[in-house]
Every structure is written in structure tokens, then in C-alpha cells.
Amino acid sequence: MQKRELRRAVFGDESCIGRLPWLNTAVLVYVGVTVVSFVLLQIAPVLTWMAKTPLYHISTYLGLIGAVLMALDLFTNRGLWRGIWCWLLYGVAFMDVIASLRTMRYGVKDNLFDLCWVVIQFALVYSLAQRVGKERMRRFLRNLFYVVLVIWGIACCVGLYQYLFRIGYTYVANPNTTSPELTRQGYYQSRLFGLFMGLDYAAYTSMFLFAGCMQGVVTRGKHWAGRAALAVAALVLVTHVILSVSRSALIALILYAFCFTVLLVRNRCGSMKQLKRLGVSVLAGVCAVVVCWGCTEGIWAGMQHMAVGTVVEEPDAIERSQEGDVSNNRFEIWRDYISLAGEIGPAGLSLSNYNDYIGDQHPEMYIVRYFTDQFKDTVKTDLVYESHNNYLFVFISTGFVGAGLFLCFLVLVLVRVIRYILRHPQLSLWTITTLAVVAFGLVEALFMNSVFLKINDVSFIFWLALGALMLETEDKVPAAERTL
What we know:
By secondary structure, the chain is mainly α. It has helices spanning 2-11, 21-41, 44-50, 58-75, 86-102, 109-125, 128-132, 134-164, 199-218, 224-244, 247-268, 274-306, 330-338, 341-344, 354-361, 366-374, 390-423, 429-444, 457-472; strands at residues 167-171, 183-188, 191-194, 311-312. The protein contains 19 helices and four strands. It has a four-stranded mixed beta sheet. α9 packs antiparallel against α10. It is a multi-pass membrane protein. This is O-antigen ligase-related domain-containing protein.
């Protein structure tokens, strides 16, 4: 009995221990290190420094460690089967295996690398919450949040300094890649790129962290100093999102303001009748959207007036024009990819080889000509324009079957979450926050490729939050935990 209590204290919920209790702890540590590593890889100066050291291959090292952990888990704890409806995700991965075999003449190494990481996300990241239990998962997410917040917050503050002093430049942040490209930094083309590798990826990472900050700000019983610090951090993060002018991130911000307010007011008005509570909650959500929009415009205008210098290396760096195309060429991109449906077929064109296949078979398409025509004098000449829609990318890479399996997974997730919300008048802040992060990812996937079947910090955070949300929406939760 004492041995069982000791194991429960060390490894968490005993039902999640399995045959090798230390393996779940190893997976927990591995996921934390992986998320922090990929966050660091999104910071351009860090990546440039890593390129000169053995740490440049950290994604390969972590991938190999993840493969070993999956192999051990498969024959011992079998935690990789605990993710809710994970068999659908493994079906998607299997379809990519078929697609990789189909397009093998265009390469094997990149597909194998991407496929390994996708399976790691499904087997180790998404299933983590089911492995370790609710309380341990919450502690892990809280600690991971603070670590990432410190790292990301410092980088955001430097970016705001660059914006105020109009410091903008480009350089090759990753000189070791086979297709090097210039990375925009600081204040460039009237947007805040900051120190980050990708503007949209950075904006969504800030949005994820902003949701975590807001949870701390509204938590009752938390020390005022901690809440004040998180409020300042939230202001820095949301300012970064606004100045990045990432339209998909701004849409997600407006959606978050509405949903977070509706659910929070719904929790606090538990004594009202159901219809009245719904009306009050929706009204509060609409007011929150108006306030959010006003604050967005105010922050944008205020930062323009606060600018105190113009220090830009490129003479055209201040200009950005998208006149005549509200979609930023997305409609033409989507049209090209959809026209390939017959060639994509049941199995798809694989995660990596679709680039080479389309470039080889359809050089006349806009998605190919974009780089060959407009960037012929730069280092970025051998790429195909990405789909700018993650749902479409799933279809391109895994075909009709893979896309169908993934769509079934998303529908089941949505049904589960909606049913849980309807059955529970009050939701925990953990449920609301993980739901917000997942919603951010689903909205972002409409406009960019960074969540599904991708290897970056945004994708890892999304799958981690989705796994936690699936655990939070189990109906085994005591009533006492369903209140704020």
C-alpha cells in the first residue's frame, strides 16, 4: 500500500502509470524540452547562433529520442493509444506513408523526417494529458507556460524597441539550409517582424501566450502582484500581435475576446435563468469585441505616434502594398491546388515531395511561377507557393482518404467540446484557456500552414492544448472543479 502511494505521489494519477512509470515522466520531460527548443528556433538570432554549433541539428536529435520513446511505449505502457480518437490521426499518418512511396522518386529523407515528427506529435504530444492525468498535466502546462513566456516576452520587448525606433533589416538567418532565404527583422514593410523567423508563426505564439496570461489575470485568489505582471505581459503580447498586422491572428483575437467573455460571464451568472444568462453573456461578448477593436485601433495609432526614429537599411522597407487583392493572392493559390485534385487522388502527394512534384509536372501554374518569376534574382528560387490553408494542405499531402479521416477527427472533437459546454453551466478556466488555444489554431489553419502536419512551435502547442482539452472535457470531473 505504501509503495502504491509513493508511486502515485511521484508519477501522478496511478491509472496513468502503466508498466514503466518512469517512461511517462520521460515523455513529459521530452515534450517540455521539445516545445522550448522549437520556440527558441523561431527566434532568428538564436537560430543563427545555433547554425554555428552542433545544436543546429537539435530537431534531428529530438526526433531520434522521440522515436526511441515511442518504440519503448509501444511495447510497455502503450500510452500512444490513449489519445482520444488517435487511431484516426494514425490513419492520416499511414496515408502519408503511402503518398511518400508514391512520390519516392522526388526524395525520401525529408518525407521521413516530417513523417516521424508528425507521428511524435500524435503519439507523445497529443496523448500526454491522458498519460499523466489532469492535475499533473496542469502543473506541467503552468511551468512550461512561464518558461516560454520569459523567453518569448524578452524577444517581443526587443521587437517593440525595433518598432519604436524604426529599425528594420534582412539577413540570412539560417545559412546552412539548402534553400537559404532572407529573413525580415524588426520594423519592415510597415509591420513588426521583430526577432522572429516567421511573422504569422510569431503572432500565433504570442496569441497562445496571451490566452495563458489572461487566465492568470482573471483567476480569483491569485496574488495581485502576479496578476499585474501577467497583465503587463499580456499587453506586450497583444501589442506584438497588433503591430505584426497578421490578419488571421487579428481575427483570432476578436474571436477570443467574444468567446472568452461569453464563457466567463456565463460562469459568473450561474444563478440566472438559462435564457437570461445566455443573453447577458452574448451581450457582454459583443461589448468585448467592440472594446477589443477600439483597443486594437488605439494601440496601433499610439505606436505610430510614439515612433522616434527611422533607421532602415533597405529604402523600400517601409512600404507594403496589397491593393486590388483582399486575399493576398490566396484565391489564385487555392484555385491552383484544387485543380490538382485528380492527381492528388486518394493518397495525396506526401508532406514534402508535393513541392517537387508540382514544380516538375506543372511549371505553368501560378504557385510555381510566383518564385521563378518574381524572385529570380534572390536565393529563394526553387520553391512552390504553399497552400496558405492548412486544411487544404492535409488534402494535398494525404489525399481524399487522409483528409476524410482528419475531418472526421475534427468533427468528433467539436461535437465532444460543444456537448461538454452545453452540459456544464460552468467551465474551469483551464477548459476555457485550452479551448481558446485550440480555437486559435483552427482559425489560423484557414489562412496559413502551421498547425496540422507541420513541425514548429505553433503545431506543438496546438496538439498539447488539444490533448489537455480532451482531458478537461471528460464528464468524470467532480462538480467542485467546474467552478472558477
